[in-house]
TrEMBL record:
<dbReference type="InterPro" id="IPR039614">
    <property type="entry name" value="PMI1-like"/>
</dbReference>
<protein>
    <submittedName>
        <fullName>Protein PLASTID MOVEMENT IMPAIRED 1</fullName>
    </submittedName>
</protein>
<dbReference type="InterPro" id="IPR048972">
    <property type="entry name" value="PMI1_PMIR1-2_C"/>
</dbReference>
<dbReference type="Pfam" id="PF21745">
    <property type="entry name" value="PMI1_PMIR1-2_C"/>
</dbReference>
<feature type="domain" description="PMI1/PMIR1-2 C-terminal">
    <location>
        <begin position="1"/>
        <end position="144"/>
    </location>
</feature>
Length: 306
């Protein structure tokens, strides 16, 4: 699974409410904004070693261009290592039992992503089924976006390193918040096919709330993850077949991968039925309760009105 660099948004809204807010700016503006703010490199044809080396080199170079270069680069590399460990920690037990136990320890901002990665990957596979039109569950109903005048929080999001810097240099940072959401674009890839992209890009939103600093003494603010949303775009307009977020190629690779790994069934031969109606933003939600990830549920689809 490939991910963009995560952004931090100070927000008390849930992930689904954020999706409604995002949809208010319109399909083309939203997808353009996500591609611009959270870009991803092309990995097709690269080896795992190349990808790892380029990622570490990029972190070091970017760190040199900023104040506190050594600590910034070191923290980035440490975060990458923690994510690599997190992707394997407890995986076998979760696969065999279906129980998603998690640690109860509060997290720093840059630990939130590692905490959520396995669940993001799991929900992204469910997202492939929607992209391939073989989803197990349909959306319960459609809803409209939030008021178009609502502030677009994605546009005000900042990189994690900027968030950390702002909140460690001053106790009264404008970026400080009792609740935050990490947002990132994700792309599933097949390492058996030279990291070919599988399906279309999706967006993940991780919502976390701050723990009581008076009750615990920490060197920096800590949070507990409360929910995770993974969503994507369903394009029903004439631009659909060519749209990077829901094109025919993306649908085909999603279906082929699901069938190859026994997760989905091949559709019957014949012409694909094109659903009519507005473009949609679909999503799944999962919550953390009693130190356990709950089963993801399908959210209502959000209609794009422009």
């Amino acid at each position: 699974m490939q991910m963009s660099k995560p952004l931090v948004m100070p927000s008390n809204k849930t992930g689904f409410e954020l999706f409604q807010s995002m949809a208010a700016i319109g399909l083309e503006e939203l997808t353009s904004e996500m591609s611009s703010l959270m870009p991803m490199d092309e990995l097709m044809g690269k080896t795992a070693e190349q990808i790892a080396f380029e990622g570490i080199a990029s972190a070091i170079i970017q760190g040199r261009n900023k104040e506190g270069a050594t600590s910034s680069a070191a923290r980035t590399i440490a975060a990458v290592k923690s994510m690599a460990i997190a992707m394997n920690s407890g995986r076998k037990e979760r696969v065999s039992t279906g129980i998603w136990n998690v640690s109860e320890d509060p997290l720093t901002v840059d630990e939130i992503l590692a905490f959520s990665m396995q669940k993001i990957e799991n929900m992204a596979v469910d997202g492939l089924k929607i992209q391939a039109d073989i989803a197990d569950d349909n959306a319960p109903f459609d809803v409209s976006p939030l008021n178009a005048k609502t502030t677009n929080l994605l546009a005000s999001a900042v990189p994690i390193e900027d968030w950390i810097k702002a909140n460690t240099t001053t106790k009264t940072s404008a970026l400080d918040s009792e609740a935050i959401t990490l947002s990132m674009v994700i792309q599933l890839r097949d390492p058996m096919r030279q990291y070919e992209a599988v399906g279309a890009p999706m967006i993940a939103l991780i919502h976390a709330t701050a723990v009581d600093e008076k009750a615990e003494s920490y060197d920096e603010r800590r949070y507990k993850v409360t929910s995770l949303q993974v969503g994507g775009i369903k394009v029903r307009t004439s631009a659909g077949p060519k749209h990077i977020w829901d094109g025919e190629k993306q649908k085909l690779t999603a279906l082929q991968w699901l069938v190859a790994y026994g997760i989905g069934k091949q559709a019957k031969k014949g012409k694909r039925l094109i659903s009519k109606g507005p473009d949609l933003l679909w999503s799944f939600s999962s919550r953390v309760m009693a130190d356990m990830w709950l089963r993801p549920i399908r959210n209502p689809d959000v209609k794009f009105t422009k």
